[in-house]
Amino acid sequence: DRKDGDWDENYDDPSFSGMFTKPIMTLQHNWMKMQDYYQDEMTQYAYTGFNFPFNKINFSYSPLPKQKGAALNFHLTNNEKIDIRRSLNSTANTKAFQTIINLDKTIPAGESIEKRPE
To answer: N or C: which end of the chain has fewer CB within 10 A?
Structure first.
């Protein structure tokens, strides 16, 4: 639920126990950076490998405050649901919705978006 590169804060625990936990915590902390890279790589494959037009449209959830987030499951509280609805109206998500509307207008009447050239 973060934008690319939003994981850039380094993990630092100056305590005595941090000396022992730092290797595993560093791996955990950098995991999201690796996932960002992998997703970008897969998107590039899609752009170059598909034999039909490909558009990546990003929607993002931006919780308020920044470090707070919704649970990653289907048991959301009412406050989390309200926060997610609020996030749908963000500037970035509004632009993403508009991109979908504009793409839909480019498909000729009677054609399906699933049709692919043979």
So the answer is: C
Q: Which residues touch 116 (CB under 8 Å, ≥6 apart)?
A: 51, 52
Maximum distance among all Cα pairs of the chain, rounded to whole angstroms: 67
- The predicted-structure confidence for 51-86, as pLDDT tens digits, reads as follows 888 888 988 887 777 666 666 677 888 888 888 888
Q: What six digits make up the tokens of 6?
A: 């939003």
Written as one string, the DSSP assignment of 37-106 is: HHHHHHHHHHHHH-SS-----------SSTT----SSS---HHHHHHHHHHHTSHHHHHHHHHHHHHHHH
Q: What is the DSSP secondary-structure string of 76-91?
A: --HHHHHHHHHHHTSH
pLDDT digits (tens, 9 = 90+) for 7-35: 455 556 677 776 667 777 777 676 666 66
Q: Which residues contact 71 (CB under 8 A, 6 or more apart)?
A: 77, 80
| 19 three-state secondary structure | helix
